[in-house]
Amino acid sequence: MARPRQTIVSLDDTPYYHCCSRVVRKAFLCGFDNSTGENFEHRREWVDARILELATIFAIDICAYVVMSNHLHVVVKVDEAKAENWSDKDVLMQWHKGFKGTLLTHKFVKGEDLNEFELKTVNDSITQYRQRLIDISWFMRSLSEPIARMANKEDKCTGRFWEGRFRSQALLDEAAVLACMAYVDLNPIRAKMAATPETSDYTSIQRRINSAIKGEQPTELLPFVGNERLNMPNGLMFSVKDYIVLVEDTGRIIRQDKRGAISSSSQNILNRLNIPAENWLKITTEFGALFKGAVGALPALTDYCEHLDRKRRQGAANCQRWLCA
Questions:
Q1: Spatial distance between the Cα atoms of 70 and 24, rounded to a whole number of angstroms
Q2: pTM value?
Q3: 3-state percent helix, strand, coil for the chain, nearest multiple of 5
Q4: 320: closest CA among 287, 275, 271?
Q5: Angle at CA of residue 285, ends 280 and 287, nearest 5°
Q6: Are strands 167-170 and 16-22 parallel, antiparallel or unpaired?
Q7: Residue of 49, 272, 63, 47 whose CA lies nearest to 180
Q8: In this structure, are residues 186 and 254 in contact, taking their beta carbons and an 8 Å threshold?
Q9: pLDDT tens for residues 128-159?
Q10: Eight-state DSSP code of residue 162
Q11: What is the pLDDT of residues 240-283, one digit of tens each?
Q12: Which contacts qualify for 120-127: CB closer than 8 Å, 24 or more apart?
């Protein structure tokens, strides 16, 4: 039975979550269907653009994403501190980037005078919007609804485009986050839709590689900021070069027509994560099958379950087997 979202998300335990959404009937509604010859590849561009647009609206950073022919994956980090630090006007301006708001919220942003009752109404809206801007369900809803409307209009039909619920799972430590990111970025390689990460269209890894060639990092994605230190900026605690090499090494091993091995720099990352190379390959190939719930080391998984009043630790055996050396 599907769980209510509030029994899955615990920002006290982790800001990182992996979300996956599929189109109805697992049909090829976002890519090229060889069986019918119909091409809906342009819809992947819609999804790609919408993900990046929402990252500029919500206090939710994109760590990794991929848009496949019949589903999408996105790894996000909820930046609760950013939303808390926004002023009331900032909250409304962020909300108005993607949503209509109300007549009163627009008057407030313009600095027009409001009476006491109107001001109270606006303050209630600000409280609601601030919470929605860190809400994963609102993020995924804002992603899926416009795409569904555009697809149905193009197909001249009505009804569902996406399955009713998206799947989400908590990523409780940096090993879980990095493994899930690599799993997401390598989706086209495993599906034989691309030969290399740099040719994997509609993926975060392609964006990171294209930016790295210029000596930059993509502004649309959560950056890699290196090792932990004082005054740590918001980001992922590895170097972008090391991550790209790790994904490239892993992709070469996964593809049967390419010879590959884990390089010394990639092995250093795995040593830091305390994951043996053979476990890493298993995880990045079968992450979705191995882990149905929260992912992380057993102490973190125990705390997560206690905070959400869960009586059993779903997936504890696989977490212990594959994420612990």
A1: 8
A2: 0.93
A3: 50, 10, 40
A4: 275
A5: 85
A6: antiparallel
A7: 63
A8: yes
A9: 999 999 999 999 999 999 999 999 998 888 88
A10: B
A11: 999 999 999 999 888 755 556 788 889 999 999 999 999 999 99
A12: 122/92, 123/88, 125/92, 125/101, 126/88, 126/91, 126/92
Bridge partner residues of 18 (DSSP): 75, 169
Dihedral over alpha carbons 242, 18, 62, 296 (to 10 degrees): -50
Would you state the structure tokens that stand for residue 190, as one six-digit string? 């495993």
What values do phi and psi take at 82, rounded to 5?
-60, -45
DSSP conformation class of 2: P
What is the per-residue DSSP string for 88-120?
HHHHHHHHHHHS---HHHHHHHTT----HHHHH
Please report the DSSP string for 198-217 in residue order. Answer: GG-TTBHHHHHHHHHHTT--
Residue given tokens 């997936």 in the structure block: 315
